[in-house]
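User: quick one, sequence for these tokens?
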């Protein structure tokens, strides 16, 4: 049965609804960034840029870096946007837009997030690089999918008990990265941990400006929690959703984050721009070891 026009939405030019892309526009290796201005900070290193388009916060550039074809896609902020980006990227490679049916041979994408993040541990200082061994979703978006096979309930149960998690918030879900990608991108320059993916920047990450949070010591409990050697290392707003949807759709995913803030020490990077430039160079260097 063809997928209905209301479900797989194509623009008049045949491109997919939000990303505005056609299947030929994307590579099998994709770097996701939050900020649309970060796209050109990556593609300025490319030998050639073959395609560039932007709709809303979703900017895509595809080109060649030292002979490797790569697409950079900006997601904007948050897991609701990741739902759009991951479903549309998957549709671009695994659904035949003419017949509106699933392809017989499915394509596996390599999806690497290059983001910014706030550390929860003193040992992961400002200006370092964090690799997310797991994403811990607090956003709730993944609960709309059948996640039973990809979640890690013993960690989740221990986490809920230790942190006295308020059940009015969505139930946390722990999802793994691609261990193959993690091996490729890990080095003495990276620190690995569990990335907590929050549903907001202020209250949901324990920041207080004028509004008090529901649980003022939640960040302390996140800091102290450990399970079989795993600790919560950092906060950001997309990783667990990328890991969850990639695992469900059969793609490989990894999240690399430049640590611009340290919540344990109260510090913020003096030069976040230079830090993200270093993470971009690090990522591009390692990405060449991926097969095409
Ligand atoms: O720098 P990016 O990739 O946007 O990532 C982080 O920064 C944003 C918040 O300022 C959130 O998207 C968070 O995940
Ligand atoms: O503290 C931080 C820094 C960047 N992005 C976040 O979501 N949180």
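Assistant:
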């Amino acid at each position: 049965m063809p997928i209905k026009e209301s479900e797989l939405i194509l623009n008049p030019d045949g491109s997919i609804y939000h990303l505005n892309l056609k299947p030929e526009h994307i590579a099998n290796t994709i770097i996701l960034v939050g900020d649309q201005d970060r796209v050109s900070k990556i593609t300025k290193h490319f030998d050639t840029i073959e395609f560039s388009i932007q709709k809303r916060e979703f900017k895509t550039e595809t080109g060649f870096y030292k002979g490797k074809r790569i697409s950079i896609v900006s997601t904007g902020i948050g897991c609701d946007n990741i739902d759009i980006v991951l479903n549309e990227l998957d549709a671009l490679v695994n659904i035949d837009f003419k017949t509106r049916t699933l392809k017989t041979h499915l394509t596996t994408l390599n999806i690497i997030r290059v983001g910014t993040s706030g550390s929860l541990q003193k040992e992961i200082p400002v200006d370092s690089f964090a690799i997310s061994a797991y994403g811990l979703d607090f956003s709730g978006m993944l609960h709309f999918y059948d996640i039973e096979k990809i979640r890690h309930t013993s960690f989740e149960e221990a986490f809920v008990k230790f942190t006295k998690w308020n059940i009015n918030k969505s139930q946390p879900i722990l999802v793994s990265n691609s261990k193959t990608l993690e091996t490729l991108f890990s080095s003495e320059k990276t620190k690995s941990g569990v990335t907590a993916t929050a549903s907001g920047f202020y209250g949901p990450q324990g920041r207080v400006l004028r509004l008090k949070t529901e649980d003022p010591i939640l960040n302390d409990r996140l800091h102290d929690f450990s399970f079989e050697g795993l600790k919560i290392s950092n906060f950001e707003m997309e990783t667990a959703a990328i890991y969850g949807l990639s695992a469900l759709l059969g793609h490989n995913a990894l999240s690399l984050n430049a640590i611009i803030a340290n919540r344990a020490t109260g510090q913020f990077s003096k030069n976040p721009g230079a830090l993200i430039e270093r993470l971009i160079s690090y990522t591009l260097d390692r990405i060449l070891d991926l097969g095409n």
